[in-house]
Amino acid sequence: MTPAELEAARDRVIDDVVADGLSVLFCGINPGLMSAATGHHFARPGNRFWPVLHRSGFTPRQLKPDQQRELLGYGLGITNVVARASARADELDDEEFREGGRLLTAKVQRWEPRWLAVVGVTAYRTAFSHKKARIGPQERTIGETRIWVLPNPSGLNAHWSAAAMAQEYAKLREAAQASGLG
């Protein structure tokens, strides 16, 4: 992609990968420009979502961003807190996150996944006004949907290694299976 092609993708919205009754609906912060340009979630080279998803046991092989619809066959889906694409998440303001939290709540009520996995604790804190939230399961639910906050797989989140992220994602997978939900 050229810089001009990436810039042209700014503010685009990409389709959710979603269906009724998913086991886990992963929720990114917002699409990056590469994702918006390609129409595929977590498409930027260096984003660790797809490798971590595989290493944690959610998928039997590492999928590529253009294979995102295969997630539905595993009972998994993807959406975002904020729908519009930007070069960096810090281009979003708190009101966008709060509105995104309201819209995400409506999506979860509509689609009824068993688990909502928000990949980014800061985004979760802002979107749901829960300033002290930590990585891991949350007490809050949306209807019957449980919430788990995971580390952001962006390559910019350097204080989390791929191995440590995979361990954290695996905790969610194990909890979902243990409770008969996975």
UniProtKB/TrEMBL annotation:
<dbReference type="InterPro" id="IPR036895">
    <property type="entry name" value="Uracil-DNA_glycosylase-like_sf"/>
</dbReference>
<protein>
    <submittedName>
        <fullName>G/U mismatch-specific DNA glycosylase</fullName>
        <ecNumber>3.2.2.28</ecNumber>
    </submittedName>
</protein>
<dbReference type="InterPro" id="IPR005122">
    <property type="entry name" value="Uracil-DNA_glycosylase-like"/>
</dbReference>
<dbReference type="InterPro" id="IPR015637">
    <property type="entry name" value="MUG/TDG"/>
</dbReference>
<keyword id="KW-0378">Hydrolase</keyword>
<feature type="domain" description="Uracil-DNA glycosylase-like">
    <location>
        <begin position="15"/>
        <end position="177"/>
    </location>
</feature>
<dbReference type="Pfam" id="PF03167">
    <property type="entry name" value="UDG"/>
</dbReference>
<keyword id="KW-0227">DNA damage</keyword>
<keyword id="KW-0234">DNA repair</keyword>
<dbReference type="GO" id="GO:0016798">
    <property type="term" value="F:hydrolase activity, acting on glycosyl bonds"/>
</dbReference>
<keyword id="KW-0326">Glycosidase</keyword>
